[in-house]
Amino acid sequence: MLPKATARCLVQRAFSSFSNATEMGLSEQHTAFQSMVREFAQEELRPIADELDSKKKFPREQVKKMGQLGLMGVEINKDLGGAGLDGLSYTIAMEEISRACGGTGTIMTAHNSIFMGPINKFGTDQQKKKILPNFVTGERVGCFMLSEPGNGSDAGAASTLAVYKDDHYKITGTKAWITNSWESSGGSLFATTDRKAKHKGISCFYIPFPSDGLSLGNKESKMGIRCTSTANVIFDDCQIPSENLIGESGQGFKIAMQILDAGRIPIAAQGVGIAADALQRALDYVMKKPVISQNDEELLAEMEVMVTTARLLTYRAARMKDEGKPIGKIAAMAKLYGSEVATSVSHKAIQLMGEDGLIKGGGVERNYRDARITEIYEGTSEIQKVVIAGHMKKEYRNKYTNGQ
Ligand code: CAA
């Protein structure tokens, strides 16, 4: 842990080099929120990020503090204990947390967007009151269980089965690569209640952890975001009451798609945050060199343009969400670009720093590894292109051929 004075110095420097509030047109309220999250993240997360990574340690105390700051229930209404903030605030927070520690960004977004999202958006008032207040304090986290060993991108092919009997569902099957699984106290599950109906037979459920018949696979040893756990979740005749059905039976695929649409904006912000940290470290490095080469300047300039453009696109997506506009296309665009920027900028930062950039504990090497997942989870880059092109074709048909 860095001494307080050094940590404060880092915060000040982050403020001077990345003070984007005016340039990004943030309101006073959003700027104050950004400063608060940045101060917490730079003082309490960034100094321990390399240790969390090397020890694969879940940042339990820091997640509790994030709960106290409203970051574990950002968009949940105040009457349920949440912060009641908008999507732009969530985006700002994700960038700041991920800039300090990419892995903690993953914990935060899996919990906020895709675990709580289905319950908050599609649950009944009774379900929200019963479940959500337990998950906004930072004491407990949740997970999202959609992918399966045989179908990562083809979400509609879910084969985990939920059979209804006597006011209960019995669940059998395996969910794969589940973020937060080992630390979770609950999860949103997508399972089929009618296999013949394919994606129209998928339903969404709230699953309390632990539950009889639910077990966890081994923790995967990952390239990046190593302070989060990733494992299979195995259901073997796991019985849950029918009141845990979220939304209507058969509505699960559309719930998952809408939740993923919105969830892609904070992943874009995670990419921006990781890239912004790599850029900051590269800039610090270059400014200490006795001679700054033209190549250094070119790389820095390219990185600055990429980070700023990705941030603008991500903010645009968040603002459209807050305005209630359709976000499927813009969210996929922000995620596609933000994740590419994360990998490309952290790659360039290493290139610029040479062998110094490869040293463990130096930050940039971790940025490079943490960035990679942003091109894979919540829909791969290839899936984002399918979504974007799908919207383009639909827009074209609506404009030029009366929807034909
Ligand atoms: N919103 C609402 N409805 C939607 C929708 C959306 N964004 N996208 C599709 N639908 C509806 C369609 O209108 C259609 O409805 P009807 O049947 O009534 O006509 C239905 O869903 C099926 O649509 P498609 O035929 O287009 O669906 P598809 O099977 O071709 O799949 C896909 C589309 C975009 C490829 C989708 O499968 C997808 O997004 N896959 C990626 C899954 C994903 O992101 N997984 C990430 C796992 S979670 C994770 O990574 C978490 C973590 O670790 C932190």
Number of strands: 8
Pairing-aware structural class of the strands and helices? alpha+beta
What is the averaged pLDDT score? 94
What is the fold named in CATH at topology level of the largest domain? Answer: Butyryl-CoA Dehydrogenase, subunit A, domain 3
- Mass-distribution shape: globular
- Quote the beta fraction: 5-15%
List the uncertain runs: 1-17
Any guess at the CATH architecture of the largest domain?
Up-down Bundle
CATH superfamily of the largest domain: Butyryl-CoA Dehydrogenase, subunit A, domain 3
Number of helices: 12
Please bin the fraction of helical residues. 40-55%
Largest sheet: spatial strand order: 1-4-5-8
End-to-end gap: 61 Å
Total number of domains: 3
Main pleated sheet: 4 strands, mixed
Name of the top-level CATH class of the largest domain: Mainly Alpha
> What ligands are attached or bound here?
acetoacetyl-coenzyme A
CA radius of gyration = 21 Å
What descriptors fit this protein?
404 residues, alpha+beta, Butyryl-Coa Dehydrogenase, subunit A, domain 1, Butyryl-CoA Dehydrogenase, subunit A, domain 2, Butyryl-CoA Dehydrogenase, subunit A, domain 3, 3 domains, 4-stranded mixed β-sheet, 4-stranded antiparallel β-sheet, 12 helices, 8 strands, disordered N terminus, binds acetoacetyl-coenzyme A
